[in-house]
Amino acid sequence: MNEHETETHRVSPASEPVQAQHRLKGRRGTALMGAAALGLLMLGAVGGATAWSMTRADAATFDADLQPTAIAQLADGMSPVGVQGQVAEIFGNKFIVTDGAARALVETGRKGEDGDLVKTGESVTVQGRFEHGFLHAVAIRHADDSVVLLAPPPPPRPDHGPGARHERPEPAPAAPAPAAPAPAAPAPAAN
User: Fold this and answer.
1) Is pLDDT above 60 for 167?
2) What is the mean pLDDT of residues 109-136?
3) Are strands 134-142 and 94-98 parallel, antiparallel or unpaired?
4) What is the mean pLDDT of residues 5-10?
5) Can you tell me which residues the record assigns to a coiled coil (predicted)?
6) Which CATH entry fits the domain spanning 59-149: 3.40.50.10490, 2.40.50.200, 2.60.260.20, 3.40.50.720?
7) What is the Rg, in whole angstroms, of the alpha carbon atoms belonging to the chain?
8) Can you list the positions of beta strands (E) in 74-174?
9) In sequence order, what are the beta bridge partners of 82?
10) Is 68 exposed, middle or buried (0-12, 13-18, 19+ CB in 10 A)?
11) What is the band of 95 on the pLDDT scale with cuts at 50, 70, 90?
12) Who has greater pLDDT, 105 or 152?
């Protein structure tokens, strides 16, 4: 053989099973590593979901120590607040509760979209956050002491929303533009 030729290795029939075993071991190792990586990924996902659900479990509760406030005394930004009264009207996921002196519109979120959380004329205690003329309900207690927990509303964003423009300072009025000088009279033409 000269330096440009390469030697060809011939595989004998006896060595084929040994080579197949080495290939199989390599594939098993790769599969095992992949399964281990997938297992760790699943463990992380389950752990993350569990941690998230544990933080959400206390988000909506009924506070028996929270004293009801008269509806006429509600003011924006009161959090948390509770009102007690009769259900006057129902509009999908909203209803009106009255305490005899005033009325409040209660928003129940997605859970109340069927309009079956309360019944007209029913006595209820509603807890939540009063903002922009709505009581965003977190919990409703019925006359039979059963409690319906609702998803809490998102936190208020003071720099956005309907009242945000009125809270910003008004821009200063633009100064009037100076008067433009009068155009000069044309010069007499020379003959």
Assistant:
1) no
2) 89
3) unpaired
4) 57
5) none
6) 2.40.50.200
7) 37
8) 78-91, 94-98, 103-107, 123-131, 134-142, 147-149
9) 127
10) middle
11) very high
12) 105
Residue 155 tokens, joined? 């936190």
| pLDDT tens column, 23-69 | 656 677 787 888 888 888 888 888 777 766 655 544 567 788 888 88
Residue with structure tokens 């281990």?
36
* H or E segment and range at residue 31: helix 16-57
Query: End-to-end alpha-carbon separation of the chain, Å?
Result: 111
pTM for the model: 0.51
Residues 6+ apart with CB under 8 A from 135: 74, 81, 83, 97, 104, 105, 106, 107, 126, 128, 129
What are the respective helix, strand and coil percentages of the chain, to the nearest 5? 25, 25, 50
Given a cut of 50, is residue 154 above it in pLDDT? yes
In this structure, how many other beta carbons lie within 10 angstroms of the beta carbon of residue 150? 22
Q: How distant is the alpha carbon of residue 112 from its chain centre?
A: 18
Distance CA 74, CA 68 (A): 10
In sequence order, the 6+-apart residues with CB closer than 8 A to the CB of 63 are 80, 82, 127, 139
